[in-house]
Structure to design on (466 residues):
DNA sequence: GTCTATATAGGGATAGAC
DNA sequence: GTCTATCCCTATATAGAC
């Protein structure tokens, strides 16, 4: 490897490693929703899906999904009403389209990143970092999913809750394992894992605040680790 | 005082002390908004305001403010459309009506509860408890304000952000003071106060989860204190 | 002060041209 | 595959009776 002048942060490395590009995700979305989408050419469909999802996230996150009209969406994305309706059969399908990936990707990423770690301390920190870095990378998705969770149709809401629970469980398990191994002192692992999630969530819910205070994702991750290490020591 | 068989928790005592009843708050709201409200008899107005606000919080918190129709609201509150419009001039006034009090009350309560404490440890824990207990007492208000913050008209949004900042500052000040006094080790107090708020917020954002896990507000408060004490030691 | 009935607009959804 | 024009319903808001 050649020497580089620019500082490569751990987050940068993470970004390269997961490499979830908009195009990749929209391509996957297209393939998953071929029955609903009327467009046959993949290249065209993916290009428009990127625009649709970008605009939906932007508008819904700034004024709320319900307050966003499809005319707003068309104006922002450059599509016409007719064009838009080649990709969805109704407005709620936009939620469906967006929702599917965020949480599943989170779960996969968390598991991928803790898998190689056997030491409880390292496992815990790996999970914390994976969650923070991923939500940093896809903060619009995370924010949307959190804010519009109540708008989900019953069936999807159940899925969303289940996946949330799984993420909870990942942290709970790491804590329980660490306690059993004697790496952590015995604590109420249920309460603590809930709190860990609260801290991770704040990173994408209050993104602006942290940006204004010049707090980087690495710094935040380090503080969370520090807080947990001292509590568990 | 006579001895009692039922266990009186600290939270119960808090509730008595702040004694923010729905009626009191709605009476204050009525007086503040006399220009907008067409009803002249205070007793009548307050009774209806209680119903309107109760129903709005209930419906908006379950499906979102925008998704809630005024017909929903009328059905739930028992008022007619005409009746409702004696209290507001448009739907957004409902936000205005509800929003005003929560944060201001929080600030007042926080300051009241930390004022008598001089020891940094006690001050910090008093603020934590005051925030948790108040949000427990008025969780619908807190949840609504958080979720509908983006729907606020620009002028009110500015106020809301300013008050939020003030609450942040209260914690920041306690930490800085404690560090200066040597009661706490030197830490990044900005990051930590942001995290404290994240933990406090989670209590009302994820109320169901904590209820399902049988975690009481006192237990949560104790864990937060423990976490902070160990971090700051 | 409260109700019912009604006006109006705005937004979701579609038909059909190109 | 994409656009424009239009349909139609729903939800806000008001007028006017009681």
């Amino acid at each position: 490897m050649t020497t580089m002048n620019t500082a490569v942060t751990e987050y940068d490395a993470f970004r390269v490693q997961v490499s979830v590009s908009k195009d990749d995700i929209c391509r996957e979305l297209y393939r998953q929703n071929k029955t609903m989408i009327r467009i046959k050419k993949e290249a065209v469909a993916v290009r428009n899906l990127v625009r649709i999802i970008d605009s939906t996230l932007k508008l819904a996150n700034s004024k709320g999904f319900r307050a966003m009209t499809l005319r707003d969406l068309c104006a922002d994305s450059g599509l016409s009403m007719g064009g838009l309706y080649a990709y969805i059969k109704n407005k709620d399908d936009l939620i469906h389209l967006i929702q599917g990936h965020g949480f599943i990707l989170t779960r996969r990423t968390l598991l991928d990143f803790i898998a190689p770690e056997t030491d409880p301390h390292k496992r815990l920190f790996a999970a914390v970092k994976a969650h923070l870095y991923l939500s940093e990378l896809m903060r619009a998705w995370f924010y949307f999913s959190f804010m519009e969770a109540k708008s989900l149709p019953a069936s999807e809401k159940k899925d969303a809750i289940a996946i949330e629970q799984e993420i909870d469980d990942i942290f709970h398990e790491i804590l329980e394992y660490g306690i059993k191994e004697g790496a952590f002192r015995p604590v109420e692992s249920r309460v603590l894992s809930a709190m860990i999630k609260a801290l991770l969530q704040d990173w994408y819910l209050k993104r602006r605040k942290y940006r204004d205070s010049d707090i980087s994702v690495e710094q935040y991750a380090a503080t969370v680790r520090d807080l947990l290490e001292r509590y568990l020591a």
